[in-house]
Specification:
The protein is an all-alpha fold. The longest helix has 31 residues. The chain is globular.
Length: 231
């Protein structure tokens, strides 16, 4: 891998880490409007998955096996959550364990994002730069959700670690330089994990949140998707 590619990869990964960290700071300022922000974030992420992330995944790896890995990522989060529900009897410990498993899910997703950026860049710079845009949005919007589930005692530490994970993932991708097929399967796994967390953590449930902002979030991603055809 050339020195220029390494610089580009690390630059993107560091920017993503900073985006994730300052996304938490912005979320802290949201206060009582957090459900509204989560509605907007959920709309953005939902459309990004269906219009950009999955199509890009299939375009660079024309294999239906990718859908299996998306399913595996989704199942991993669901089964882990169910296991905790069925094996933890203390209510407070149950809540804490659920928070931990979802923080781990965000961390794994952040790590894989950095890894994928490093792996895809070696194949096609244009695909990497195009993919980076929705991933930046993913980092920013998913960080809003983490603040609503993270434990106060460990929130600062988890935010710092989550911000570093994209960089660590990128470094691993640089060191290993795995073939594109493996990178795409890891991306598919990350998409499955992200999709589960959008449903469980990002989109406000019941009468919380605002449907109009969820629609606006989808519209933002649709506009971004349309712009890809002109640039």
């Amino acid at each position: 891998m050339s020195a220029l590619n390494i610089i580009v990869i690390l630059g993107i990964a560091i920017t993503m880490g900073l985006t994730d960290y300052f996304g938490h700071r912005i979320s802290g300022l949201a206060g009582k409007n957090r459900d509204s922000w989560l509605s907007l974030s959920g709309g953005i992420l939902t459309a990004l998955i269906f219009l950009i992330l999955i199509p890009d995944l299939i375009a660079t790896n024309n294999s239906e096996i990718s859908f299996l890995f998306i399913l595996i990522g989704f199942l991993f989060m669901h089964l882990a959550e169910k296991y905790i529900y069925q094996h933890e009897t203390n209510k407070q410990e149950l809540v804490n364990d659920l928070k931990r498993i979802h923080v781990i899910g965000f961390g794994l997703d952040n790590f894989l994002v950095g890894f994928i950026i490093a792996s895809v860049l070696e194949i096609d710079l244009s695909v990497t730069l195009t993919l980076a845009i929705p991933l930046f949005l993913q980092m920013l919007t998913s960080s809003f959700s983490l603040d609503s589930i993270d434990t106060p005692k460990s929130s600062l530490l988890s935010k710092v670690i989550l911000s570093i994970l994209p960089i660590l993932g990128a470094l691993l991708g640089i060191l290993l330089e795995l073939e594109q097929a493996i990178s795409n399967y890891l991306l598919a796994l990350a998409i499955g994990i992200l999709f589960y967390m959008i449903i469980r953590d990002v989109i406000p449930q019941g009468n919380r949140g605002r449907a109009s902002l969820y629609f606006l979030g989808n519209l933002i991603s649709i506009i971004l998707w349309i712009l890809r055809f002109f640039f």
